[in-house]
Amino acid sequence: MIYVTFPDGAQRQFAPGTTGLDVAKSISPSLAKRTVAMALDGVLTDLADPITRDAKIDFVNREDPRALELIRHDCAHVLAEAVQALYPGTQVTIGPVIDNGFYYDFFRAEPFTPEDFAAIEKKMREIIAKDQAFVREVWTRDQAIAHFEKAGEAFKVELVQTIPADQDLKIYKQGDWLDLCRGPHMTSTGKIGSAFKLMKVAGAYWRGDSTKPMLSRIYATAFAKQDELDAYLKQLEEAERRDHRRLAREMDLFHFQEEGPGTVFWHAKGWTLFQTLISYMRRRQQQAGYIEVNTPQVLDRALWETSGHWQTYRENMFITQTEDERVFALKPMNCPGHVQIFKNGLKSYRDLPLKIAEFGTVHRYEPSGALHGIMRVRAFTQDDAHIFCTEEQIMDEAMKINDLIMSIYEDFGFTDIVLKLSTRPEKRVGSDDVWDKAEAALMRVLEKVAEGGVRTGVNPGEGAFYGPKLEYTLRDAIGREWQCGTTQVDFNLPTRFGAFYIAPDSEKTVPVMIHRAMFGSLERFTGILIEHHAGHFPLWLSPQQITICTITQEADEYAMEIIAEARKRGLRIEADLRNEKINYKVREHSLAKIPVLLCIGRKEAADKSVSIRRLGSQAQTSMSLDEALTALAAEAVAPDLKLN
RNA sequence: GCCGAUUUAGCUCAGCUGGUAGAGCACCUCAUUCGUAAUGAGGGGGUCGGGGGUUCGAAUCCCUCAAUCGGCACCA
Fold it and tell me: How confident is the prediction for chain A on average, in pLDDT?
């Protein structure tokens, strides 16, 4: 006999091989009816699975958060059946659950279009209505290969062939349709419910490999309940409203045009924001002991051959050839430039760590399909720095960078950070003991940071070819994650360029180079800020902080006085003196997301006061001009300059 | 780069199976000087993404290039 333990701690005996369903039935028919799966010792399992050992059992109904994955996975199977029913000859491949939904990749000569969705969804509802049981079978490899070959499912055959020979092949059937699948599934298709929706079609490479065939992917989502689906769709709309490309137009921040794909035309307001970020970062870096430099935009090909970039990234570089046939490249990175500055003049161990920073604009010929607003561009500015130090200093410097990055993100309102360590890739340079040291140093940083309550993780084999790296990912106001900061340890480049310092023993010694960026790309970080705040910037970041809205022309002169006084205090302010109604002006400047509106009419002009209206509120506050400007100027101080 | 979609006025979009371009907002002019999210009237504005082709005739059909969007791949 086996012992089954229930969530309340009660134990009961069953014959070995009793299924979860039998156990549920033994408790009550209604429990059996509403249970869609079980968790055995915490592992989600088919309810029809026999229980063969002592285990804790937990019945999962479809409202259980753990069931969501099953609903989506089951729905993927139903999607595949529906597609094969409607479009004979379509081959199935894989259909996994992903964040917020699932997809299924099909192979078909003619790709799907969103116009097909209505028919597919209808067919899916029919399949769900039939409420066929999911039945699991275990097949041999040969049996599976024979079946899928006969069915013309070449991709499935390939999948079966990649599964280790000693492993069972699980087949899940729903009525006549079946799929190779790891499971688990719910008891029947009817449990999926009706809160699902096909979202979009896309192309995707078979096995994620660009040398393999392009498949037709259908993205979809499913939830336990309709209101959850509705909430999700609403969230997507919200994300669209925050889209930085749309807000940039509405707020007059920047634009793109055809002649410069992937390169930004910064308008005055966007550039003000950009410069505010640079000023902020410059202060933080100076305080942290960095020196700031500037290196050439265009450098001889020979330099890039020495650095190794020419060999690896030639096709992604902007190249230019001059009249004398000399080949130059626009810099795709700042590192080689910084090494030149390090090498210029003899360096001593006493100079280390030497922290060289640059707001370096780099050009990279990114694949056309990669471009995305200002998030992914072909010309961008990095808050780049390289720390030349000894091996012994790596840990300490990486920790200092970490503290600086965390403090900076906090100033921008990002407190949910994930830190990941990427370790040595297969293709790499440098000896293993050097890698050991570098990884150990970064791992200690990771552990220390984890102790402080930050989420951490490891990406094995994801490091750069020259060294391991730490990657900082932040989560924005609507939960999306963005990778920004990075710390990379490099033993390679200083050697390639023959950089050295004089060690205490008078020997020439190659320094370690730590690459480090905190915003990452200024363009990208700006985009993240736009979306994070949905354009409602805090005062210190807002490109235009105040608009004065006059109610009558009698206040024009006073408006000019306010402007002069506010600008003296460093506030970014404009006046709207147009002959328009106050309603019109309030609406227009609210839509432009100006954080502070100062409305002035005859009354305010007479007693030198202002009526303040803040973005997002309809409340009006009246106070004296001096009082108002003092408060606003105090609020507009950058977080690093605030005294408290 | 690959798959798919899209490209019409500054913006958002309409324009059926080919018959010679339209709306709202914005802009300009005039009137209105008004108290916290759209005052009224009038007016101007488009090589229909570029190039080529089919046709008596192309925004509309075909080819091609480009950009953009959604994914995939890429991201030093």
Answer: 95
Residue % of chain A over a pLDDT of 90: 90
CATH code that applies to domain A249-532: 3.30.930.10
Q: Indicate the pTM of the whole model.
A: 0.94
A33 C-beta neighbours (distance < 10 Å), count: 12
How far apart are the C-alpha atoms of A527 and A245, rounded to whole Å? 8
Cα distance between residue A113 and residue A356, in whole Å: 52
User: Tell me, in Å, how far CA of A247 is from C1' of B17?
Assistant: 40
Residues A210-218: what's their mean pLDDT? 95
Other Cβ atoms within 10 Å of A221 Cβ, number: 22
Instruction: Quote helix, strand, coil % in chain A, to nearest 5.
Output: 40, 30, 30
The verdict on whether A75 is a catalytic residue reads: no
Cα torsion for A352, A357, A363, A368, to the nearest 10°? 100
CA of A369 to C1' of B6 (A): 15
Question: CATH 3.40.50.800 occupies which residues in chain A?
Answer: 546-641
Q: Please give the radius of gyration of chain A, using alpha carbons only, rounded to the nearest integer.
A: 31
Residues of chain A with CATH 3.30.980.10: 68-237
**Catalytic: A197?**
no
Q: How far is the CA of A373 from the C1' of B50 (A)?
A: 23
Q: Verify cis geometry, omega within 30 degrees of 0, for the bond prior to A353.
A: yes
**CATH 3.10.20.30 spans which residues of chain A?**
2-61
Residue A305, pLDDT > 70, answer yes
Q: Which nucleotides of B are covered by protein (CB under 7 A)?
A: 1-5, 11-12, 31-39, 66-76
The nt closest to A579 (CA vs C1′) is B33
Q: Can A384 be counted among the known catalytic residues?
A: yes
For A2-61, CATH gives 3.10.20.30
Domain A68-237 fold? Threonyl-tRNA Synthetase; Chain A, domain 2 (3.30.980)
Q: Which secondary-structure segment (H or E) carries A521?
A: strand A512-521
Whether A364 is catalytic: yes
pLDDT in tens, A113-131: 888 999 999 999 999 999 9
- Report helix, strand or coil for A167: coil
Judge whether A520 and A472 are in contact, CB under 8 Å: no
Active site residue A249: no
Gap between the Cα atoms of A169 and A185, Å rounded: 15
- Give the length of chain A: 644
Write out pLDDT tens, residues A346-386: 999 999 999 999 999 999 999 999 999 999 999 999 999 99
Is residue A515 annotated as part of the catalytic site, yes or no?
yes
Pick the CATH number of A546-641 from 3.10.105.10, 3.40.50.800, 1.20.200.10, 3.30.930.10: 3.40.50.800
- Among the options A181, A191, A244, A335, which is catalytic? A335
pLDDT higher than threshold 90 for residue A464: no
The distance (Å) linking the CA of A221 with the C1' of B29 is 54
Residue closest to B3, CA→C1'?
A203
Question: Given phi > 0 = left and psi -120 to 50 = alpha, else beta, which region is A631?
Answer: alpha
Do the beta carbons of residue A560 and residue A620 sit within 8 Å? Answer: no
